[in-house]
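thought: fold this chain, then report.
action: predict
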Amino acid sequence: MLPDVAVLAQLGDLVSGPVPVEYLQLIRDYPPELLNQPRGDDEYGAISDVELPCDLDVVCELNAEARAQKILDPDGDEFIWPNSLLIIGENGSGDYYCIDTAGEVDGVLQYEHQPVEFFEIADSLAEFVSLLLDSVEEEPGESCH
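observation:
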């Protein structure tokens, strides 16, 4: 399924540039093993709704939300979400997964809201997907909405 042009334009506006082709291909060819897979024993939702949403409308909402929040870093300074970082999911605890649309970081970063910092959790989108796949059971889920 091809992404809606208006949604892509909105995402492009939020990150001040084009959405990486590699990410769009991942969403277009979303791994069926991740679709509607439960997030864990005690977690609510599915991986395809939270950690790596297959719906770009959800991705737009996450990016708009992060850019609208006023967060103070440990020094008491206001943290402003970097324009080039596209949020591609969240962990359900207030932390985001993101990729750098400027290409300065090749991998997937995790933003931790406390202590307001980023660190690399995967060397590439493919490795991030592999980490998610490692966390699911053998049985694939249903289709994405």
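thought: worth noting. The radius of gyration is 15 Å.
final: tokens above.
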